[in-house]
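Anyone opening a protein record will find just a pair of labelled lines. The record below illustrates this layout.
***
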Amino acid sequence: MVVLLALAVGLALPTTASRAAELVMFERPGCAWCARFDAEIGPIYGKTGESRTAPLRRVNLSGPLPADLAGIDPGPFTPTFVVVQEGREIGRIRGYPGDAFFFGLLDRILSSTGSEPEKS
């Protein structure tokens, strides 16, 4: 009886799990600011609390936009960083403001999601 009740409750719950935030970087080949991001942030981002909160996903605008990002406008400038959670945009950084400002801006966006980055 308890097993049947647990099964019934489990079936009543939503089937889609809440997806974590991700940081989508829209880029183009030949983008000098994308290359600067790659040099300054690229080597360390995967080791940061921000990365654990919002893993980096790169989208090359020379190809088709992935289906799950169809509702997100990448804008005209590259790089453009968009924090996406559960399929919707939470915030964005237009361009690359340099390493001194990038993490501050990203932390402000992530704090609005209720998912503040872990401090390393």
